[in-house]
Design goal:
Elements lengths: L1 H16 L6 E11 L2 E8 L8 E4 L4 E8 L1 E3 L10 E6 L2 E10 L2 E8 L5 E6 L4 E7 L7 H9 L9 H5 L5 E6 L9 E2 L4 E2 H16 L6 E4 L9 H10 L4 E8 L9 E6 L5 H11 L3 H15 L4 H22 L5 E7 L11 E8 L3 H7 L2 H21 L4
Parallel strand pairs: 1-5, 11-14, 11-15, 15-18, 16-17
Antiparallel strand pairs: 1-2, 2-10, 3-4, 4-8, 6-7, 7-8, 9-10, 12-13, 16-18
The chain binds zinc ion.
Zinc ion binds next to loops.
Length: about 400
């Protein structure tokens, strides 16, 4: 039954990603609003490229764009057909109007327009706006600390300069709900179950430190869209974001642990892993390059690299204590959607290969999952200690 359901989900995913012949359908406009940050997501049946225009006033502002060759989907929420009131941060409302029979105009009304990012996601196709309440990406509290604390070692790392005390740690168990992730059919193991269990174990270990607050992006078998995961971390003002995954390769002997941070890459394997996790084609991955250049300026790349290195080293050392044939595949960079827009040091860990028979068997055992969680924990603690806090 489950397999049949999965097959239907897979078929649905494929059908949704097929290019539309007729007009594109606007299915929904969703938003996630927080004091410093609002993420607006337009769900569409197929890809549309937009060119937004911005009109700035002294105490108001407007951003608008046209969805051409587009109509409302039959299931588009009726209450969102004219306007969506937001009134959080500087974004007041979203107005929706029919330009002509084939065009939908979307208008964002602001108190004042600050910094924003716009990017596209695929499978299914979405247009995403990240709108920041302030022109700066750091909060007032952090700005104050930045002024008080001098650079420790002359490195450009903001976290080090701040002596940033890590308080909130966001754990992201990969996949969930209708998205099983990688599946090992012989052992009947799904990535989403393994990552959730490891995430819960990591949560339990970290919770022993009273000074930490742990946030899980999901604690059940729920579907959480990729773009929502970094939004959860941002809105909770997480200090560290760790996404947990299991790897898969066509070469069934491939095994080991690898850690990733968000960046562009020329490494074909890293691209393949990212494409798999992003559930998109290599072609769409290439298109992602343009949005990445924009977003990377605001990402904590050097801190994320250090976090990835710390976790990778601890994972390998901890697993090698109990297990043989633990391969260190190293720290790599790649454009993962799940890390996109995260405003804190963030890493994605491929803890082992579910496509490898030996590692898949290990991943089914509680003791191996516990050893993986302990490795992640030690890596996080080492990173925090490297920041001179704790
Ligand atoms: Zn995954």
């Amino acid at each position: 039954m489950l397999k049949r359901l999965l097959a239907i989900c897979f078929w649905l995913t494929i059908s949704i990603s097929l290019p539309a012949r007729g007009p594109v359908a606007l299915q929904n406009i969703r938003y996630y609003s927080y004091p410093e940050y609002t993420r607006v997501v337009l769900d569409l049946s197929a890809s549309i490229k937009i060119a937004e225009k911005v009109i700035k006033g002294s105490d108001s502002g407007r951003l608008f764009f046209d969805l051409k060759n587009c109509r409302f989907a039959a299931n588009y929420p009726f209450e969102k057909k004219n306007a969506i009131k937001i009134q959080a941060g500087n974004l007041q409302q979203i107005r929706i109007g029919k330009g002509n029979a084939q065009t939908i105009r979307v208008v964002f009304d602001f108190d004042k327009i600050g910094k924003y990012n716009r990017f596209y996601l695929t499978s299914p196709f979405r247009i995403v706006f990240d709108i920041y309440s302030q022109t700066e990406f750091v909060s007032h509290a952090r700005q104050a600390r930045e002024q008080e604390v001098p650079a420790l070692d002359g490195s450009p790392s903001i976290a080090r300069q701040l002596g940033l005390g890590v308080h909130r740690i966001v754990i992201d168990p990969g996949h969930g709900g209708k998205d099983p992730g990688t599946v090992n059919r012989y052992l009947d193991v799904q990535e989403k179950d393994v990552t959730l269990d490891i995430g819960k174990r990591l949560n339990a270990i970290l919770n022993e430190h009273k000074e930490f607050e742990i946030i899980l992006t999901r604690c059940r078998d729920d579907y959480v869209p990729l773009e929502e995961r970094a939004a959860i971390a941002n809105s909770n003002q997480g200090d560290i974001f760790v996404s947990i995954h299991t790897n898969s390769a066509p070469r069934l002997t491939a095994r080991g642990v690898e850690s990733y941070y968000l960046n562009v890459t020329a490494d074909p394997w890293a691209m393949q892993v990212a494409a798999q996790e992003n559930a998109m084609s290599s072609k769409s991955m290439a298109e992602m390059r343009t949005i990445l250049d924009q977003i990377l300026q605001n990402s904590k790349i050097s801190e994320s690299r250090i976090l990835s290195q710390s976790i990778q080293a601890s994972m390998i050392a901890n697993l090698k204590r109990k297990y043989d044939a633990v391969e260190d595949l190293g720290v790599k960079k790649a454009p993962f959607y799940v890390l996109l827009g995260a405003q804190m040091p963030s890493a994605l860990i491929e803890v082992s290969f579910l496509s490898n028979r030996d590692e898949a068997r290990r991943l089914t055992s509680p003791s191996y999952r516990q050893a993986v969680a302990a490795g992640l924990y030690l890596g996080i603690i080492n990173f925090i200690q490297s920041l001179g806090k704790l």
